[in-house]
């Protein structure tokens, strides 16, 4: 009987039946190890990772928003340019807590971070301009489309409470300014979304550098154990003690350069930087350059090394205003002017005045000299070419 128990003819007991979903292998393959993990692409996550937690994204947004908010604006209609106007007075002090620069900086910042900006008119009386203007957070605003696809309302949600802005009447209480989005009819595309991959790479590189600094600014080495009898395996107690000694006495900035005392057959084998480690810094710089390019900021203005697109800083600064700041300020000021014209009951235009931008002074001098030397043009034609209003009679 005992021999039969250990004979080859006996069949082993069957393993317990395991049940699993038929889609388990597919899910495991789709989320298997070795795949890149990207951050979320919603507005809040992009703002935290790309603006609050990334110096390149933060500086790019601040540089554009501050420069565009400081651009001088011209208020005019089809007949004349105004030095004093109710629209100018409203923009000078739009609300009790903000001036013109603060309001427009917040507006441009929301537009760059989320692709959408919302301006609220406060104190609408039905006649004349609103008493105040406020910028609403884009992440709290949602559009309610109507049957024809156009927004019939905006909902502003804070802490479970919602306020509804009716957009079926005139004038509109909300001015919605959005960037171009090829796949969305109601919301704009943020540069932050286009630079999301580069921001993940840059943030991961910064975290890697921080971890490297915490480990005495060099990659970890290897501790080799050789027992007296040639056995190279530590007991659990010895292993735990060794790990504790390293974490307590040889890691972190305060222990940098501290000598290590090895005993009992332990030997330290340092490891140098591999070629991939040496290229990690270049990867971070390349990611920073991609972030700056997504926002339209010349990398030279952010101090990113290795960029030779422009010959000098002045040329990069001039290109920054021509290619990024002025187009953005022109589009936003035109949208705000059209919205305020509905409240005012008369069409008014707001546009940037490049003649008062110091970065474009060299271009302005060349243009004025070229037009002034044109003897075949009259004074009225020269003023028109320079963007100046016509002279009044006398």
Automatic annotation (TrEMBL):
Matches recorded under InterPro entries: Phage/GTA_portal, Portal_HK97
Region Disordered, annotated ranges: 1-20
Short name of one Pfam family: Phage_portal
Protein name: Phage portal protein
Organism: Paracoccus onchidii
